[in-house]
Design goal:
alpha+beta, NADH Oxidase, FMN, Nitroreductase, single chain, four-stranded antiparallel beta sheet, 169 residues, Nitroreductase-like, globular
Length: 169
């Protein structure tokens, strides 16, 4: 098969696949490394590589899930708080093999939109590499991410833009 045909198949086959459809299997470390490393080939002006990813697996991932649920609980008015949604956050994380937080480091050298766009292209590379390796994934941007900067230890010029969920399919 020609490279262009393979690329076309991967691009057209890319889909957001959600934790409810993930298998209870670990993603091999070499595959995870390949997925994350593919981000480094995204175009970025002035070579700022503004994306910042943190990989959560195992107990760290479960701790992140509990933290997200607590953010929901602590930032939701009691009259609209739903225990089911609280528990669903924890369950979604439990069904996920790996979560990668997506943050942007604003260099001050470029307009912010360019660094956000470069980060999105880095995530697209991870999407395509996941697809090629039969790993389901999706980028989620729940309102809770605006409360993650401290948890992630982000600097003042950095901001979290989402969570990238991955699981075997």
């Amino acid at each position: 098969m020609e490279k262009s045909e393979i690329l076309k198949e991967i691009v057209e086959g890319r889909r957001s696949i959600f934790p409810k459809d993930y298998l209870a299997e670990n993603i091999e470390q070499n595959i995870l490394d390949e997925i994350v490393n593919s981000s480094n080939f995204a175009p970025n002006h002035k070579r700022t590589k503004p994306w910042r990813f943190k990989v959560f697996k195992g107990e760290e991932k479960d701790f992140l899930g509990q933290h997200l649920a607590e953010i929901y609980k602590n930032t939701t008015a009691p009259e609209v708080f739903l225990e089911k949604k609280y528990l669903d956050i924890i369950e979604k994380v439990a069904k996920t093999n790996v979560i990668i937080t997506i943050s942007v480091n604003f260099s001050g050298l470029l307009p912010e939109w360019e660094e956000i766009a470069a980060t999105a292209m880095a995530v697209q590379n991870m999407y395509l590499t996941s697809t090629a390796n039969k790993v389901g994934c999706y980028w989620s941007s729940p309102g809770m991410i605006k409360h993650l900067d401290g948890f992630l230890g982000l600097a003042e010029n950095q901001k979290c833009y989402g969570l990238f969920y991955l699981g075997k399919i």
